[in-house]
Design goal:
The chain is mainly β and 302 residues long. Helix content is 9%, strand content 56%. It has one helix and 21 strands. The protein has one helix at residues 2-27; strands spanning 41-45, 50-58, 62-67, 71-76, 80-85, 89-92, 95-98, 119-125, 129-135, 140-146, 157-161, 164-170, 174-186, 193-203, 207-218, 221-222, 227-235, 240-251, 254-267, 270-280, 290-300. Strands 8, 9, 10, 11, 12, 13, 14, 15, 16, 17, 18, 19, 20 and 21 form a 14-stranded antiparallel β-sheet that branches. Strands 4-3-2-1-5 form a five-stranded antiparallel β-sheet, with no helix packed on it. A hairpin with a 3-residue loop joins strand 8 (119-125) and strand 9 (129-135).
Length: 302
């Protein structure tokens, strides 16, 4: 009876998530593809300003761009941090939206999209969690991470690797992904730990829903039942995203849920993730919301 009740809970949560996210994903349209704006550039300066326009003249010392609101502006190259072409984003209602700099995962859960060859990022959560990932090809990436507890009185230190394969089925609409997290704890004789997973992602890099199954393993044994995951991402503006990441874990004849909601803010090229995780379990009388705070710094090709 308990197993049936747990199954119904998982099923209802999945249906609820699908009813919310699928209409949003299916109605999603590209709000703007560059046409005559394709020759436009975005100039970022050291003082934090950004200027969108077309280059009318340039030399080794300065460039002049023609903007829509400010007219012609001359900027010294020594004051420029970056000049980005329209291939790094798109125009939406007169604003420049950069391409999603962290489109391959939510808070922690990956999705069906993959890093492109040469793209890399460093992720840090609450100082302790550290991971670096890089794209080996457009369809295969690998990451490595650690929690450096050795910095605190020589404690045992978890380390892991995360290979992942991404398979685009319908471009910008449906992607499959599969991978693993395989780790060990330095300073102990216990066996390794990790998870094997597969997932399906519906939607674009800016607005999508991912449903996944994962089998955890530790000490030479693997879980009898998979962990079900449901996650979603919706872009809310040029630099903002709504995120949700949820897990349903079967253990000891019961199902435990871990729900979350929050957002992502793009500050220059750095992604700031924030939110709350809420555990749900049978007999849990006290509601405990665990905050999430992390940053992601892209580097390399992107």
């Amino acid at each position: 009876m308990k197993a049936l009740v747990c199954f119904r809970i998982i099923y209802l949560h999945l249906v609820f998530a699908l009813l919310i996210f699928f209409p949003l994903v299916l109605r999603a349209q590209d709000p703007g593809k560059p046409s005559e704006e394709s020759k436009m550039v975005l100039v970022q300066t050291k003082d934090g300003n950004e200027y969108l326009g077309t280059i009318t003249s340039e030399d080794e010392i300065k460039i002049t761009i023609r903007t829509q609101n400010l007219g012609d502006i001359t900027i010294f190259r020594s004051d420029i941090v970056r000049i980005s072409g329209m291939d790094t984003g798109r125009m939406v209602n007169g604003e420049f939206w950069f391409s999603n700099p962290q489109a391959t995962r939510y808070y922690w859960l990956p999705n069906g999209y993959g890093l492109k060859k040469g793209e890399s990022y460093y992720q840090n959560v609450w100082i302790f969690f550290n991971q670096v990932s890089t794209g080996i090809t457009d369809n295969f990436s690998i990451g490595a991470g650690m929690v450096p507890l050795f910095l605190f009185a020589g404690s045992q230190t978890p380390v892991w690797i995360t290979p992942k394969v991404s398979i685009p089925v319908v471009k910008d609409k449906f992607n499959l992904g599969a991978g693993a997290l395989a780790g060990t704890v330095i300073g102990t004789d216990e066996g390794g730990f990790g998870m094997l997973y597969g997932l399906s992602t519906f939607g674009s890099r800016d607005k999508n829903l991912t449903i996944g199954l994962g089998w955890a393993f530790a000490g030479g044994s693997i879980a009898n039942a998979p962990t079900v995951s449901v996650a979603g991402m919706i872009r809310t503006g040029p630099r903002g995203y709504f995120l949700t990441e949820n897990y349903f874990i079967s253990a000891g004849g019961e199902t435990i849920g871990l729900m979350s909601a929050g957002g992502r803010r793009i500050i220059k090229r750095i992604s700031l993730d924030y939110g709350l995780f809420l555990p749900i379990a049978p007999g849990l009388e006290t509601i405990i919301a665990v905050p999430w705070l992390g940053i992601t710094l892209p580097f390399g090709k992107n």
